[in-house]
Amino acid sequence: MLQKLVRRWQRKRLSDPQYAFLYDEHPDELVSIDCETTGLEVKDAEIVSIGAVKIRGNQVLTSESFYVLVKPEGEMAAENISVHGLRPQDLSAGMGVEEALRQLLDFIGGRPLVGYFLEYDVAMLNKFLKPLIGVKLPNRQMDISSIYYRQEMKNLQDGFVDLRLEAINKKLRLPETVRHDALNDAVHAAVVYLWLKGRG
Which Gene Ontology MF annotations are present (predicted)? Predict the structure, then answer.
């Protein structure tokens, strides 16, 4: 009941009524999402790419995916380039963050979101989204690191769970992603989510 009241209050704060569909949760699908950024501090970082893929039932729908490059306004540190492999020249033809977000919202709709340490990605999106439409993402969120932690804690004595993605992959016997970019990371997170759901 409280959740419904909060959502109703948030919906009234929506400054752009064309995005009211964000409050209509899709019954059969989820979206796995990942952002690449210029840094790890939400306050200072900018988004350089967004990847997302739909999940329906027990299938990752790679034919229904979303990927955009975003042109940042500030400079990128060399260590960030080494992580996501995107150089300033790669992003020079990228779209503005506002247009990227509008396209992303059309893609995800009201579907619940899945991701690895999803809180960071959502915080980055919300930083730009709230000034744009007046509200943060209202979508339900399922973080695979949290799901994995809860599952592992049932069988552990010492209370330590390694939440690095490499450790999760090894434990679940899943291959590493071939290439580190937002879309591949979103697809991998979707696979991990379905694996965890299956062993649940």
Answer: 3'-5' exonuclease activity; nucleic acid binding
Q: What is residue 137's three-state secondary structure? A: coil
Q: For 8-17, how does the pLDDT look when each residue is reduced to its tens digit (9 = 90+)?
A: 777 788 888 8
CATH number of this structure's domain 23-199: 3.30.420.10
Contacts of 26 (CB under 8 A, 6+ apart): 109, 110, 111, 112
What are the DSSP E strand ranges found in the chain?
29-37, 47-56, 59-69, 113-115, 141-143
Q: Look up the pTM and report it.
A: 0.89
- The answer to whether 67 touches 48, Cβ cutoff 8 Å, is no
Domains of the chain, by residue range, sit at 23-199
Specify the pLDDT at position 136: 94
Q: pLDDT tens-digit profile of 146-196?
A: 999 999 988 776 778 999 999 999 999 998 776 678 999 999 999 999 999
Q: Is the dihedral of CA 131, 37, 95, 44 positive or negative?
A: positive
Residue given tokens 């990228």 in the structure block: 94
Strand partners, 70: 95
195 within 8 A of 174, measured Cβ to Cβ: yes
